[in-house]
Amino acid sequence: MTTTAPLPAAATRAWTPVCPLDRLEPDRGVAALVDGVQVALFRTAGELFALDNLDPVGGAYVLSRGIVGSRGGVPTVASPLHKQAYDLRTGACLDLPGMSVARHDVRCRAGMVEVRLRQEG
Questions:
Q1: Distance between CA 107 and CA 121 in Å, rounded?
Q2: Residue 60 counted as domain residue
Q3: In a domain, 7, yes or no
Q4: What is the distance between the alpha carbons of residues 121 and 117, in angstroms, rounded to a whole number?
């Protein structure tokens, strides 16, 4: 059995440097381990997004390998397993109401992508 410690309160979570911005290809995902959490990072035209890498429907850490696109102007990633689309801005599943994946704060400072974990779901 594997246990994980709860994430620290938002006020105490720090920004973690992950990679240089130019290592993220546009409209592709990449997985990163941030403080023990698998995070899926996405770069679209001028925006960065970070979600948990765990597909809540398939139960596998695969969202970083999903298909990046949009639906009705909403930036999305479709799970490579069952093709549910998740809003990259909020983590909400567009195909299964009430289902979502945790999103995390992401920014670029001095050319370095940084992530701050959030506790959502």
A1: 20
A2: yes
A3: no
A4: 12
Q: Which domain holds residue 26?
A: 14-116
How buried is residue 97: exposed, middle or buried, by Cβ count under 10 Å (0-12/13-18/19+)?
exposed
- For residue 25, count CB atoms less than 10 angstroms from its CB and return exposed for 0-12, middle for 13-18, buried for 19 or more: exposed
> pLDDT digit string (tens) for 45-61?
889 999 999 999 999 99
Whose structure tokens read 């779901």? 121
Query: Which CATH number does the domain housing residue 45 bear?
Result: 2.102.10.10
Q: What is the layout of strands, in order, in the sheet containing 16-20?
A: 16-20, 112-116, 103-109, 47-52, 37-44, 28-34
- Within a domain: 23: yes
> Residue 9: inside a domain, yes or no?
no
Please give the model's pTM, rounded to 2 decimal places: 0.86
